[in-house]
Amino acid sequence: MVSRHRKFWTSFMQGKVTRLVDGRRLRTPRGIVMSAFCAALIVLLAACGGGTAGSGTTGSASSAPSGGNDISGRTILFEIQSSPSDSFFVPVLNGAKTAAATYGLKLQVQYASNDDTTEITQVNTALASNVAGVALSIPDPGLNKVVCAARAKNIAVVAFNINGSSGQGASCVQAFVGQDFVQSGQLIAQHMIQLGQIKSGDHVFCPVEFPAQVYAVQRYAGVKQALQAIGATCEELGTGVDFGPAKSDMVSYLLGHPKTSAIIALGHTPLDQAPAATKQINRTIPIGGFDVTQDILSSIKSGAITATVDQQPYIQGFQSITQLALYLKYGLSPANINTSTGALIDKNNVDQVVNLVGTYR
After folding, report:
1. In the predicted model, is pLDDT for residue 230 greater than 60?
2. What is the mean pLDDT of the chain?
3. Confidence of residue 48 (pLDDT cuts 50, 70, 90)
4. What whole-number distance in Å separates Cα of residue 19 and Cα of residue 24?
5. Is 268 in contact with 293 (CB distance < 8 Å)?
6. At 208, which helix (H) or strand (E)?
7. Which of 1, 103, 142, 168 is the most buried (most CB within 10 A)?
8. Strand, coil or helix: 173
9. Overall average pLDDT of the 134-149 stretch
10. What are the DSSP E strand ranges found in 100-202?
């Protein structure tokens, strides 16, 4: 016995569905029947899909780029020179994880805690396990040998955040993803000059965590170039990364140099603590610098800090892994990326950044 539903669907597909109009039984034309059926089917399939257009799933097999070599499951060493407590590298790592998921790569994350020996050991261990690529921050030429050891094994190398390699070591680094430190130093100094906060003959205080590291040397060079052009001077001071001692050192410097006209902090630690240091000595001094923390942004909103140059750390992690993935998958050569072109944050755009700190900024 054929059910009533089955009879209906048979008639429906054959274009024989009828309807009553003014008491008469009329057949619905086949074209109208099929159009209605297709429309219903589309709605049903959309509902079964369980999502809206463009929702996508990052890192799923269907969303991974097609073609080229199969790199899914390959391991990339992601070597961070700092320690896990350094909040700056949280968005860097977030970006790296997103890129790794996109290409189906595995990340082996290591922290060197600002120690070259530890970083060299960690990289050598990863090379011995035949990782597919290495993304690392290189604080100084001390890592030249291990970087070239990776290339000798045909393991891809991309530096992020800082590239202190030199000579042969520099030729072993295929690309650098990070801030152009000299250009960024010029940017913040010129911005404060244009605002009239630094003038000819002024003395500027330039505190920084580690004066000998590449980022500090090059930012200092960029700041000095801009200041020398108007006849102003700048003096460096090492502060380390701990907020308490950094503030204390800056207070001592400012008390000993009462004619200091402005502060350009060359790293996020001294910039974060500069407003508190000037408040402690009861002076209002124009302040600018580099990098982003919640306290830095709050100080920009209050006017205590004029501006900061953002390294855009999420890009550093995302693009360093993406470059390695594209190299492994398609043989595309890694390229240098300046993550900080014009990335100035001041009172005009600070509100766009506040909610992104610690995740993407």
Report:
1. yes
2. 87
3. very low
4. 8
5. yes
6. strand 203-208
7. 103
8. coil
9. 97
10. 106-111, 133-138, 156-163, 175-178
Structure tokens at 189: 């100094």
Sign for the CA dihedral angle at 324, 330, 334, 338 comes to negative
pLDDT of residue 35: 41
**CA distances from residue 339 to 74, 178, 299, 312 in whole angstroms, order as listed:** 26, 5, 23, 6
22: left (phi over 0), alpha (psi -120 to 50) or beta: left
Q: Which of 213, 268, 206, 211 minimizes the C-alpha distance to 233? A: 206
* Full DSSP string of 259-323: TEEEEEESSHHHHHHHHHHHHHTT----EEEE---HHHHHHHHHTSS-EEE---HHHHHHHHHHH
What is the C-alpha separation between 355 and 361, in angstroms, rounded? Answer: 9
**Can you say whether the dihedral through the CA atoms of 258, 256, 230, 308 is positive or negative?**
negative
Output the DSSP codes for 85-104. T-TTHHHHHHHHHHHHHHHT
In angstroms, what CA-CA distances link 66 with 61, 76, 108, 281, 326?
A: 9, 20, 24, 60, 11
**pLDDT in the model for residue 42:** 36
**Helix residue ranges per DSSP H, 29-143:** 30-49, 89-103, 116-128
pLDDT at residue 19 is higher than 50: no
Handedness of CA 161, 165, 169, 170 (dihedral sign): positive
Are 78 and 135 a contacting pair, CB within 8 Å?
yes
Domains of the chain as residue ranges with CATH: 75-179+313-342 (3.40.50.2300), 181-309 (3.40.50.2300)
Query: Which pLDDT does position 64 carry in this prediction?
Result: 76
The whole-number pLDDT of residue 11 equals 46
Q: What integer pLDDT is reported at residue 56 of this predicted model? A: 33
**Mean pLDDT over residues 12-17, rounded?**
44
Distance CA 35, CA 26 (A): 18
C-alpha neighbours within 13 Å on the C-beta side of residue 213:
23
What is the C-alpha separation between 9 and 16, in angstroms, rounded?
A: 10
